[in-house]
Amino acid sequence: MNLSRRLLYASEIWEIARPRTALTAGHLLIRLTNPAIAFDLHSATDWLLCHNAARHALAHVLGATRCTVLFAHQWHPIGAAIGEPEVESSTPTFHLFGRWDGETATPGEQLLLPTQRRVPVAPEKLAAYDDGLRTALRRSAVERAEAQRAEDERTARARVHFAAVLTDDTAAKCTLDGQAPESVPLTDRPLPGISATPPPAKAGRHHTVLSPASDGPLAPGHLLAIAAVLQGLTERRGVTGLSCLVPDPGHGRLEVHVLGRSAGESVNPLQDFLALPNVSQALL
User: Fold this and answer.
1) Pick from 251, 252, 198, 195: which is nearest to 225 by CA?
2) Which of 34, 87, 124, 246 makes a 20 to 30 Å CA pair with 201?
């Protein structure tokens, strides 16, 4: 399958595509188009737009009600790569697995096999879905971008109105180093808090769970905060990279399972990780 056939949607910064080896009909990639682009507020916002569009498209075309995300940080699968999708490139890549009732093969069943024994989805089967996914992705991305612009405009109008009704005395009480709080640029605001805790059942000694410290919808700031914590986790002794999995949170809090990896590891922690109840439910 050539690149033009694999590409489903390209945003300003990220692209949504089929992997070279699609393990299920609901297996998609979100991949950075240019590795030189920094992961900042702009690219985090664009990633979230692509993620939401991909979830919407998988739901529309395949009836997917859940979506699990796998990605690696400073790590490439080696050997049999149990528990990991095959590496696509050195460009930052996120694997999405949509899940739906009646699927004939599950991501977990495929990932528990060594790479040479996995059975990719036949190209003709993918072709039956991909035109619908392309259409749904474009529509969803446009709708969400328009909704975001409308929200930004409402916020801007609210700030103008708020500034207009302030009295001089109130304005003096609402300044922060000479700026109204509403005028502080997003890039200068502190990142949301992220909790990092050991899970009740650990898969290896370098297994950590990251979660937003407060409830609420996932925002670009959360992605930046998680990225900062991940970078710190790679600096632990005996860790050279990370394998990460994000089960569908449903109505609960987002959890990012982070496994420390090393080229010299004697045991692949993903083999134990896939047996954990919430992980096996997400992938099996």
Assistant:
1) 195
2) 87
pLDDT at position 86 over 50: yes
Q: Quote the percentage of the chain above a pLDDT of 90.
A: 57
Residue showing tokens 């109130």: 170
Band of the pLDDT at 159, cuts 50, 70, 90?
low
Q: How many CA atoms lie within 13 A of 73 on its CB side?
A: 20
Would you call 97 helix, strand, or coil by DSSP? strand
Confidence of residue 184 (pLDDT cuts 50, 70, 90): very low
Nearest to 53, CA basis, from 135, 172, 126, 159: 135
Measured between alpha carbons, how far apart are the two ends of the chain, in Å?
A: 27
Dist. CA 201–CA 209, nearest whole Å: 11
Helical spans, DSSP H, in the chain: 3-6, 41-62, 107-111, 123-165, 168-173, 220-233, 269-273, 277-283
Under DSSP, is residue 13 helix (H, G, I), strand (E, B) or coil? coil
What does the mean pLDDT of the chain come to? 85
Q: Which residue has the tokens 């609402």?
A: 174
